[in-house]
Amino acid sequence: MTTASTTTLRFHRLLLTGAAGALGRVLRPRLKACCDRLRLSDIAELGAAADGEELRPAALEDKAAVMALLEGVDAVVHLGGVSTEHAFETILPANIVGAYHVYEAARVHGVRRIVFASSNHVTGFHRQSETIGPRDPVRPDGYYGLSKAFGENLAQFYFDRHGLETVSLRIGSSFPEPVDRRMLATWLSYDDLERLVVAALSAPVVGHTVVYGMSDNPLSWWDNTAARHIGYRPQDSSERFRAAVEARQQRIDTTNPVALYQGGGFVAQGPFPGDCP
Asked: Residues 234, 192: contact at Cβ < 8 Å?
């Protein structure tokens, strides 16, 4: 297939976790240009292996399985885990324990670069009236956002202690097109998602870099200036969808927390079964 990004960097073996998820399915055919062998992992059905693919199902909370999964891997695109808001007990095994297993296995096997799928929900309780950057304080909007904040801290620790480089991608709303007015600010096209991941893999020096995953949208709450050194240059924009989105959603209730905070609907979810009364 034709890809949105080109790079001369080529890994022998690249691991994609969460390969059966929505964004994993988008990236699966696109990442083959970056590697000789693409190792795919998930707990969901992965289908048949295409040429150049290796299928390695693994539960992230299974330390031994993850340790085996990263053997012989040069770099990791880590999308695996629960991708929406749930009770803490649901988030914990894959997103928190599993993230630790990925980083520890990467350390043991000498992996030098991880691209970590973080989320804009790490800062979801900042208001839509603010423009923030990766260096502003985190304000998670739920257990999912908390787990991604943990992942970013884990990435920083493993760089500081072990020199393992990470680009943490605070992904906005990656869909074929924006579905509401919030997504005019947070939208990330699939082609720009590819450009972002390839930039994160191929930048020569990243340390631990945090970057927001968004297209070149005129309306934006996020400033990526501090992450320009990875070379990500979005080429798509939500502007061409604006008229249709505004026609569908003509009014915004500014008394509703969903419209006040950058995290949108995530700020209003819960409590969940098992939470304290």
From this structure: yes
- Edge-first strand order for the sheet with 35-41 is 53-55, 35-41, 11-17, 75-78, 113-119, 165-171, 208-213
Domains and CATH numbers, the chain: 11-268 (3.40.50.720)
Q: What is the C-alpha separation between 180 and 65, in angstroms, rounded?
A: 40
- C-alpha span between 221 and 126 (Å, rounded): 9
118 within 8 A of 171, measured Cβ to Cβ: yes
Q: Which residue has the tokens 């943490």?
A: 168
Q: Which residues are catalytic?
A: 144
214/224 Cα distance (integer angstroms): 9
Residue with tokens 């070379």: 231
Read off the pTM: 0.95
pLDDT in tens, 35-76: 999 999 999 999 999 999 999 999 999 999 999 999 999 999
How confident is the model over 1-18, as pLDDT tens digits? 446 766 678 999 999 999
DSSP the chain: ---S---S--EEEEEEESTTSHHHHHHTTTGGGGEEEEEEE-SS------TTEEE----TT-HHHHHHHTTT-SEEEE--S--S---HHHHIIIIIIHHHHHHHHHHHHT--EEEEEEEGGGGTTSBTT--B-TTSPP---SHHHHHHHHHHHHHHHHHHHH--EEEEEEE-B-SSS--SSTHHHHB--HHHHHHHHHHHHH-S--SEEEEEE--S-SS-SB--GGGGGG-------GGGGHHHHHHH-----TTSHHHHBTTGGGGG----TTS--
